[in-house]
Design brief:
By secondary structure, the protein is an alpha/beta fold. It has 2 domains: about 70 residues, Orthogonal Bundle (Helicase, Ruva Protein, domain 3); about 120 residues, Rossmann fold (3-Layer(aba) Sandwich). Helices cover about 45% and strands about 10% of the residues. The protein contains 7 helices and 4 strands, in the order H-H-H-E-H-E-H-H-E-E-H. Strands 2-1-3-4 form a 4-stranded parallel beta sheet. The N and C termini lie far apart (about 45 Å). Keywords: Arsenical resistance. This is Arsenate reductase ArsC. It comes from Kribbella jiaozuonensis. Pfam families: LMWPc, Phosphatase-like_N. InterPro entries: Phosphatase-like_N, Ptyr_pPase, Ptyr_pPase_sf.
């Protein structure tokens, strides 16, 4: 792959440079039928910058950038009609993408399995997922500890079939003709696990209801 972006980045260490080059190569294998090297590296570059200013773990940034770039390129490919496997896509949005939307995504992926696609984002992404929310979800056997706060982007919103908003107000993106739902839920930020449990349980109820409306049956036994 031609080094379109990274040789201009003097802020990167040698290890980060190599990690991003490797990430770009993996993304090219997945998306080169639709997009050229320059587009793929541009998405990886901008995804890296989304996390670079707030992350306290620089060595983890290339992996975060690759994961986010893969989601964005998948969304763009759907929007542009290059690929669409027919599965419904639901995007969960809140302010920090650290509590409500992450719990909703956790339940959605747990219950839907591979029958649907779930994404999440925030209007003002935090630094990490709320540890108390992680603990509350672990009580239900769902691990959201590997998730990370991230922003939304236009292609991700446009690719979603349903956009569920939770407290982001006027900052939530609006695209005409798209299905929106607003879930009025308390913000778990700063709460103890005991206080988060009722929020968690209400999120599960709403996710199950949404899956029913989408005709996506819960995975057996869940």
């Amino acid at each position: 792959m031609t080094d379109v972006v990274w040789h201009h980045r003097e802020d990167l260490s040698i290890d980060q440079h190599l990690a991003l080059r490797t990430a770009a190569a993996r993304l090219k294998v997945q998306f080169d039928a639709y997009y050229g090297a320059e587009t793929i590296e541009r998405f990886l570059h901008s995804s890296y910058d989304q996390f670079a200013t707030g992350s306290t773990i620089p060595n983890f940034l290339p992996l975060l950038a690759e994961r986010f770039a893969r989601q964005r390129l998948t969304a763009l490919a759907k929007v542009e009609g290059h690929q669409d496997d027919g599965r419904p896509v639901v995007l969960f949005l809140c302010v920090h993408n650290a509590g409500r939307s992450q719990m909703a995504l956790g339940f959605f992926e747990h219950l839907a399995g591979d029958q649907a696609v779930g994404w999440s984002g925030g209007s003002e992404p935090g630094i990490e997922v709320n540890p108390a929310a992680i603990a509350a979800m672990a009580e239900r056997g769902i691990d959201i500890s590997t998730e990370y706060p991230k922003p939304w982007t236009d292609e991700v919103v446009r690719a979603a079939d349903v956009v569920v908003t939770m407290g982001c107000g006027d900052a939530c993106p609006i695209f005409p003709g798209k299905r929106y739902e607003n879930w009025d839920l308390a913000d778990p930020n700063g709460l103890e696990v005991a206080d988060i449990r009722p929020i968690r349980d209400e999120i599960e109820r709403r996710v199950r209801e949404l899956l029913g409306e989408l005709a996506v049956p819960a995975v057996s036994g869940r």
